[in-house]
Amino acid sequence: MGSVREIERKYSVDPGFMLPRLAQVPGVSTARTRRAVTLEAVYHDTEDLRLARNRITLRRRTGGPDAGWHLKLPVAPGARDEIQRPLGGDGGPVPADLVDLVTAYLRGAELRPVARLVTLRTARRLRDDAGVDLAEVVDDQVSATILGSAAGAQKWREIEVELGAGAPALLDDVERVLLAAGAGRSASASKLAQVLGPALAEAPGPDVPAAAAKLRRRTPAGTVIRAYLIAQVETLLATDPRVRLDAPDAVHRMRVACRRTRSTLRTFAPFFPAELVAHLDGELRDLAGALSGARDAEVQIAYFTERLAELPAELVRGDAAAVISGHLAADQSAAREEALAMLRSARYLQLLEDLIALVNAPLTGSARKPAEKILPGLLHDADRRLTRKVARAGDLPIGLERDELLHSARKQAKRLRYAAEAVGPVYGSSAAAFARLAESMQELLGTHQDATIARGLLREWGVRAQEAGDPSAFTLGVLLGLEEHRARTAERDFFDLWPAASARRHRRWFR
């Protein structure tokens, strides 16, 4: 059993609700009723309902075609990823890999059964003329109890519409028919949220608070920056289980969230206690570092494969592709183990606790001043740091020291970009344009740094191949020369861009 993307909508209905003819929905040819089934599900959560508070459900369901353990992770409003595992023995523990996937939310808290739901379900499959299942509409009569509570059973009826192979617009068409028949959009995100309603209301809110809806120049500066940090901490938590599942792009997204958070804390350090900034800076650096190996090896394998394919046949000697993949694949496997070890460490869980506390803490000191009074100065400081780094690099001859300074300038351009993103809701198009400019500088310097790293790898592999008498040493040398050219071209292009990029007109909005 694996993972499925679930896109659905829920509707509350009265006991006497009559389901309308669903074949009248545009594009639907038939609405076949399936035999009613009884489903029993026991939901697991912590004492303080950490999963439910963060819109996550974990259950063991019997009955129906998908009996088993189900973990549902939100991905967007109305959409969740459902990870499924076999039932196992009756009364057995939650599968260890599912517990691992919610580690970031549990942070050491124990799981226990919190609710039992028994559902009589009648389903209707909506099919088109070709017999394709477009969607499924289920009519559920639910009886639910909170385990360990003296409260009696709750009973209700609801309609769920889950998208199959149909287009998303089909959900709108079905909704119009249901609403016209007397159904109403459900106020609860899930059955569990409905049965736990009073308990959820008394529990703390989600780990990460909602950001302020409207940000203006008179908004406290700390509120503006907190909104950006909230988005990054939400991304960290949401991508954690997907990194553990080795989902595409998950490591990259988590690493970028680490870097954005770290950069924001550095640029806007006056808003936070100095000791906390120093602590989080180190922890986020090490987390991003643990994630980097797996991502970097993945990117390098794809890049070198492409470069080899572009070489004329007469420049390819031996099996250079095998040499390169052999080195990088081993690095990639080891790096993934390193990343998972970090995510399973007490240190990582404490970092999450600290970040959650950070975005929930009250504003103090200069963070309470209006954004227009303090944010421009902090951006100006970050911009001046970039200017100084570029000037120092430009005064040096081509070589290792200059490469290192350009790498430092790249990191500062990235911080400047993230700072502009953070204040974007207040400064609008001016900040957005400046963020794009900083990104252009970052990308040129990033190409230079990528080529510099590639040169080092190719030099090492080439020497080893030469010492072993492997003919691929020649091809690795050719690639080394190409990377030297790529590094110097990117360096030249950056310094060509710099006079225009450093012009005052791009900075009037924060001066």
From TrEMBL:
Sorted alphabetically, which CDD domains does this protein's record hold? CYTH-like_Pase (cd07374)
CHAD domain location: 218-503
Domain CYTH as annotated: residue spans:
4-202
Signal peptide positions are none
The UniProt entry, under InterPro entries, shows: CHAD_dom (IPR007899), CHAD_dom_sf (IPR038186), CYTH-like_dom_sf (IPR033469), CYTH_domain (IPR023577)
Q: Which SUPFAM superfamilies match?
A: CYTH-like phosphatases
- Organism's domain of life? Bacteria
This chain's protein is named CHAD domain-containing protein
Q: What is the lineage of its organism?
A: Bacteria, Bacillati, Actinomycetota, Actinomycetes, Frankiales
